[in-house]
Amino acid sequence: MVSKEQKRAALHEQLQHLRSLTNSHALNKTSIIVDASKYIEKLKQKVERLNQEIVSAETSSVHDPLPMVTVETLEKGFLINVFSAKGCSGLLVSILEVFEEMRLTVLEARVSCTDTFRFQAVGENEEQGEIIDAHTVKQAVGQAIKNWSKSGDQD
Asked: What is the pLDDT of residues 108-131, one digit of tens each?
């Protein structure tokens, strides 16, 4: 049987894990849970905002044929999203070439290139001394998209 002390230790360990996941600096249980709740609300808002940006991109794609780019700063690295309402042959290569030029390491990526083009990646800077901000990443990816568009590789 599991003793009360073992249960208490397990609960404490789980709370500390929750505290680290949510970047909480709280010390007591209630504050850790409140911080986690606030963190979840922020994530929900971020998801809603990203969904709205996608809907906006889908509705404006008739007027603006270039894919939409969003870049967010994470604790370590960036979350890069590229979306187009149409397939974009060759665009993935152009984007990954920019990552290589900027010395960004792709830690995780999801890509869909069938009817639409969706690219989501988490990347971090390989060079510890060189600091790259989200705006710089967005500009570089945007320029890669413009270059790709001018090169005639698109569908």
From this structure: 999 988 778 899 998 888 766 677
